[in-house]
Amino acid sequence: MSEHGAGLTFAHVITDIPIDIVLVTFIASIIYTIKSYLNVSQNLKKLNAFLSQFKKTDLSFRFREIDEWMTANHYVSHAWHEFKNTLVFSESVALKGQNDDLVYTDVSSTVRNVQTVVDPLYFFSDEALIKSKFNHKLIEQFPTFLTGCGPLFTFMNIIVAFGQLNFESAETILSSVAGLMAIMQIAALVSVIAVACSLIYIFIDKMSYSAWCLKPYGRSEELIGNLFDYVSSEKFLFELLKETKIQNNSVSNLVSAMPVEFKAALLSGIAGNVVPYLENVIFGVNQLNKNIKEVAKSSGGDDFF
After folding, report:
1. How confident is the model at residue 185, as a pLDDT?
2. 78-84, long-range: CB within 8 Å, 24+ apart, which pairs?
3. Reported pTM
4. What is the C-alpha separation between 32 and 288, in angstroms, rounded?
5. Cβ atoms of 113 and 229 closer than 8 Å
6. How far apart are CA 81 and CA 91, in angstroms?
């Protein structure tokens, strides 16, 4: 008799609508959460695999490659577009050396490769790369919803149980009280199942979020930080001002030395080109005078001179 009652009780539990609602909600929330986290994990692993191909030293030469990939990737395109506007590229000037060979001189003594004036984690935060890719607020509310279903359905069952009490006779009172106790057991079981589902969901959520989201995101954070050095805006502006003053000083020295250099070049040009030409002219005139004298002498016309 007790085994039969236990069987009926178990069947009643399985077919109880409030308990079924709690279990269906629990299973649906687990499926949605795992599906969302797996999607984030796959995209972050693709990002990490791509970024691991680059080094800080060759980033300036391969920047177009990384720019095209990041722009085409819908997962990080928005964050990359905003982050790209903060990048500072190292530039160099080609100057001729003593042997007419090109010598590359850096414009800045501190800016190297590709740097950013804003912390990369401001754009590639967990909010941008993880939580914005699914409805994280809904996931955060799943435990609260499951826990809230317990008291809700418990009190609903209690209301239904008291509504079924019948005090017409002793037999009806006994049967209705027995029914009341059975419903009260189900009502209490609903709360227990709801709280248990909530605790299990929290555990699964924390473990899966740490393994599938935080771990690959930490790797992405490390790769981006290694590729793009962070330089503060104040330091960058100070460096820019310093380099501007150095360049202005060089231009000022060049302008002040220009008259002297021009004079030296002019004198050098005269000495090297005009003086030999004049010497040749004078030599030619002397030779012409000498020839005329010889001709006049030979013809007896010395008095001509």
Report:
1. 78
2. 78/128, 79/123, 79/124, 79/128, 79/129, 80/123, 82/123, 83/116, 83/118, 83/120, 83/123, 83/124
3. 0.65
4. 111
5. yes
6. 22
192, 214, 202, 190: which is closest to 127 by C-alpha? Answer: 214
Q: Of 92, 106, 79, which is closest to residue 224 (Cα–Cα)?
A: 79
Paired tokens of 245: 């003053």
Q: When comparing pLDDT for 259 and 235, which is higher?
A: 259
Q: Answer whether residue 48 shows pLDDT above 90.
A: yes
Element (H, E) at 67: helix 63-72
Pairing of β 102-106 and β 92-96: antiparallel
Q: Which of 68, 122, 88 is nearest to 231 (CA)?
A: 88
The number of beta carbons lying within 10 Å of the beta carbon of residue 162 is 12
Q: Are strands 114-116 and 229-230 parallel, antiparallel or unpaired?
A: parallel
Q: Is the pLDDT of residue 9 over 50?
A: yes
Alpha-carbon distance of 113 to 145, in angstroms, equals 51
| Bridge partners for 106 per DSSP | 92
Predicted confidence at residue 107, as pLDDT, reads: 45
Residue 136 CA: distances (Å) to CA of 40, 133, 197: 12, 8, 19
